[in-house]
Design goal:
The complex is a heterodimer of chains A (117) and B (506). Chain A is mainly α. Chain A has 3 helices and no strands. Chain A is elongated and about 70 Å long. With 506 residues, chain B is mostly helical. Chain B has one domain. Chain B has a two-stranded antiparallel sheet. In chain B, helix 2 runs antiparallel to helix 3, helix 3 runs antiparallel to helix 11 and helix 16 packs antiparallel against helix 18. Chain B is globular. The chains are: A mainly alpha (117), B mainly alpha (506). Chains A and B meet through helix 2 and helix 3 of A and helix 6 and helix 7 of B. Chain B: InterPro entries: CPA3_Na-H_Antiporter_D (IPR050586), NADH_UbQ_OxRdtase (IPR003918), ND/Mrp_TM (IPR001750).
Chain lengths: 117, 506
């Protein structure tokens, strides 16, 4: 399971960065989404995967009796998902506006800010 | 009551931002609330600063969860100094925005977002938890995305696409670094991490994590070779926005770098070497970039990059004197860079252009304003006794002590080029004969706007210039402050004890 997840995370990071390096604006958004999900999965993996041991204390005892899954990474991922969701929706609107105003979806043609003025 | 004292600056900004949202379309009310609120915020920050100065580092454990399990807020001298500088710059830009940002932008929630940005900055300075730092960074960048795009002009949107992409990438690298660090140590509290990272056996992995942090914060603070988004975007939004960005946004990256590399990843010769090399290249490339630009705001953008180098070089040399120099430079730079972008806004408002070739005759027509602008421009160069001069003494002393003569050369070279750039700007904009600039019929020139607006534009420049003069002439006080901060940073056990050994009393 860990190895599988590690490979998936690697693919997500690589694909995300590759897509961000492309010139099309739409591919930029896809890159952002892939990279965000890769980072979330990485937190999940590095919080150690523990199968079938939720961090809930049984009714009859007062402390944990066995090893349990770390709940902190889940809280972190939840926060990170919400944040990256917000950023992605902003990116989509930004790209839509930029496409409308600049009238191109090629990042190489967006060079008005580098011109001498 | 005094227990939660350090949270007051944070909560006040949050309150302001929420309050402003209730007056969404009433921009005059928003202006007044923002200016008064910023003034109160400055007063509160000064109060908290005085308390920390007298009583030492204070911590708050959110929800009374004992560290390292809950989220910690900590105000040592460094953090509270940054909060104080934020509120000084915030007050100046709030007044400047009231005078210079046009109503169409204000109607789309400029002020609430502006205060959310200041909230994020204050939070980033005060937090003692690395994941919480990430969350504050996200608040900062989301607010800055809105501020940079508000108005929706062509250049703004193009700049915003670049700004967004690279800042998003930086955040993801930062998040990756946090994930790896959590995997290594199982902790997120920075003081706890400082203990646990030192005990990790797999040093190679620790070093890689440190490099990830360096890249993440490096993009945000625009060090070589990660700075290209900055000159592509900082000159596109209104000057008020550039002012707060130029003054504070890159500096929060520097703050995070200094914090992480003096607390968590300490004393790694390899990392210090990398920091030094990056700083030297940052100094060179920023200075040379500024030399060839024609737009005033682009010149200032490159000078931001150049002067980030001074702070990173201080961190890289890693002696008490060097870090004191870096801190002093940070104080000076926040005030001066905010002021410079406001000045570029004032010049644009008067002449309708920011191109050095088109401008001219400023000194002949506006002698008083020119003298006012002289203060921040030549403070930046560091003509003694103005403020930019003093930190360089510490930095140069430190580079002799550590024997890093390349740093010495870079510091002197960058100062010299800054002098050339500012002299060129002075000659072109102020001394050259006035040029013919085509008059824009719809543009609201300085002489056409109401008196109150003119006051709102000039007063913050005067205010920041006065503070800069104080930093220059009262350098002794700032040096005392910088020395105290640097000794606190170098003896990080004090910070760790403050977080981990506090008893929570009900």
């Amino acid at each position: 399971m860990e190895i599988l997840l590690a490979i998936i995370i690697g693919i997500l990071y690589a694909a995300g960065i590759y897509m961000m390096l492309r010139r099309s604006l739409v591919k930029l958004i896809i890159g952002i989404i892939l990279l965000g999900n890769g980072a979330n999965l990485l937190i999940f993996l590095l919080g150690r995967i523990t199968e079938g041991a939720p961090p809930i204390i049984p009714e009859e005892s007062k402390v944990f009796l066995e090893a349990y899954a770390d709940p902190v990474p889940q809280a972190l991922i939840l926060t990170a998902i919400v944040i990256s969701f917000g950023l992605q929706s902003f990116a989509i609107i930004l790209v839509k506006r930029a496409h409308k105003v600049v009238k191109t979806d090629d990042l190489d043609e967006m060079n008005a800010t580098d011109e001498d003025s | 009551m005094t227990q939660q004292l350090i949270l007051y600056p944070l909560l006040l900004q949050l309150l302001l931002a929420i309050l402003l949202m209730f007056f969404w379309k009433k921009i005059n009310t928003q202006r007044i609330i923002s200016m008064l609120g910023s003034l109160v915020h400055l007063a509160v920050s000064i109060g908290v600063f005085a308390y920390i100065w007298n009583n030492g580092t204070q911590t708050v454990q959110a929800g009374s969860w004992e560290a390292p399990f809950g989220i910690t807020f900590i105000a040592d001298t460094f953090a509270i100094t940054m909060v104080l500088l934020t509120s000084i710059a915030g007050l100046a830009v709030s007044i400047f925005s009231s005078g210079s940002v046009i109503g169409d932008r204000l109607r789309f929630g400029y002020f609430p977002i502006f205060h959310f940005l200041l909230l994020g900055l204050t939070g980033a300075f005060l937090t003692g938890d690395i994941f919480n730092l990430y969350v504050w960074f996200e608040i900062i960048i989301i607010s800055s995305f809105v501020l940079i795009t508000i108005g929706g002009e062509k250049a703004q949107l193009e700049g915003a696409v670049k700004y967004f992409t690279l800042n998003f990438l930086a955040s993801m690298i930062f998040l990756t670094a946090i994930a790896v660090l959590y995997g290594l140590t199982g902790s997120l509290n920075m003081a706890d991490l400082a203990n646990k990272v030192a005990a990790v056996e797999n040093r190679a992995l620790v070093e890689i994590t440190a490099i990830l942090f360096l890249i993440g914060f490096g993009i945000k603070s625009a060090v070589f070779p990660l700075y290209f988004w900055l000159p592509a975007s900082y000159h596109t939004p209104p000057s008020a926005v550039s002012a707060i960005f130029g003054g504070l946004l890159t500096k929060v990256g520097v703050y995070a770098l200094i914090r992480v590399f003096t607390l968590i990843f300490v004393g790694d010769a390899f990392l210090d070497q990398i920091l030094l090399v990056l700083a030297i290249f940052t100094l060179f490339s920023g200075a040379l970039g500024a030399l060839v630009q024609n737009n005033i705001r682009k010149v200032f953008s490159y000078l931001i990059i150049c002067h980030i180098g001074y702070m990173i070089i201080g961190l890289g040399m890693f002696t008490e004197v060097a870090i004191a120099g870096a801190i002093f430079y940070l104080v000076h730079d926040i005030l001066v860079k905010t002021n410079l972008f406001m000045i570029s806004g004032l010049i644009y408002r008067i002449k309708g252009s920011n191109s050095m070739r088109a401008l001219g005759g400023f000194y002949a027509n506006y002698p008083k304003l020119s003298l006012l602008m002289f203060i921040p421009l030549f403070s930046l160069v560091g003509i003694p006794p103005l403020s930019g001069f003093w930190p360089k003494i510490s930095l140069i002393t430190a580079s002799f002590e550590t024997g890093s003569y390349w740093s010495l050369a870079a510091i002197i070279f960058a100062s010299f080029i800054t002098l050339v750039v500012i002299a060129k700007l002075w000659a072109e904009v102020f001394w050259k004969d006035a040029q013919e600039i085509p008059v824009k019929p719809k543009f609201r020139y300085y002489h056409k706007i109401k008196n109150i607006k003119r006051i709102q534009i000039v007063v913050p420049i005067v205010f920041l210039s006065m503070v800069t003069l104080y930093v220059g002439f009262g350098a002794e006080h700032i040096q005392t402050l910088a020395t105290r901060i640097s000794s606190e940073l170098m003896n990080n056990q004090q910070y760790i004890d403050a977080v981990l050994n506090t008893q929570i009393s009900e």
